[in-house]
Amino acid sequence: MIVGVYCGSSSGHDPVFAEAADSLGRVLALGGHGIAYGGGRVGLTGRIADSCLAHGGTVHGVITQDLLNKEVGHTGLTQLEVVDTMHERKARMASVSDGFVALPGGFGTLDELCEVLTWSQLGIHHKPVVLLNTKGYWNAFALMIDQAITEGFMPASHRSIIQLVDEPDQLPSALASPSPRPVPKWVSSE
Q1: Separation of CA 174 from chain center
Q2: Fewer Cβ neighbours under 10 Å: the N or C end of the chain?
């Protein structure tokens, strides 16, 4: 299985985020899984790629020429594919991935995550989408989805599109969950 990974080009302030990226790279590689990601060498993106490679995994990076020119491309990958636009990058990553995981990140991570969630909602793919909820990072996102459901902007059944896991070791079983996936345990606003 090739896992599409979305995460920050920064490592964040707390070392726990980098540690989770290192652990996830190890777990995926030792489980026989490769990763597809944005091709960067910095932040959490670089950490997960390096960890996966160090543990014998394969890493397929997809990066735009512009980002490669800014010297953030990782040149030690199994494969580094250079594309022209961010749209091409996202489409290519989605096409080579059998499932997706999002670690903490910023606008780019949210953009990529929301796109694969929308594609799942529309039936364009039926691949699992998992959030690695390190340090409760995705709790507010889960609450936002609950608010959208409460206010009638999406049906409650769409909760099952996303699974939240707290530890990297939980990811392989979450990715293997049959479809339709069970409704995950969500944080409560109460």
Answers
A1: 13
A2: C
